[in-house]
Small ribosomal subunit protein uS17
Amino acid sequence: MPKRVLQGVVVSDKQDKTIVVKVERRFTHPVMKKTVRRSKNYHAHDENNAAKVGQTVFIEESRPFSKLKTWRLVEGEARDVAATEA
């Protein structure tokens, strides 16, 4: 089975070799028929401490690194949101 890959924004990089990534999903509400946004935070392993707050990154499923970390940063995929908007 292929590993899931999610795209999100780094909201914290204060921990050593760990980042917190906010992943947003959109879906249509079954009754109201309105597009709803829901977000969830994932702890991901960042071996080289490469990702910084505000960057858009891709994370993929992996073996458990700790109690909360079961995702890892996909190398070479970090993109700075502030630089692309300016």
Summary: The radius of gyration is 14 Å. The CA atoms of residues 7 and 47 lie 18 Å apart.
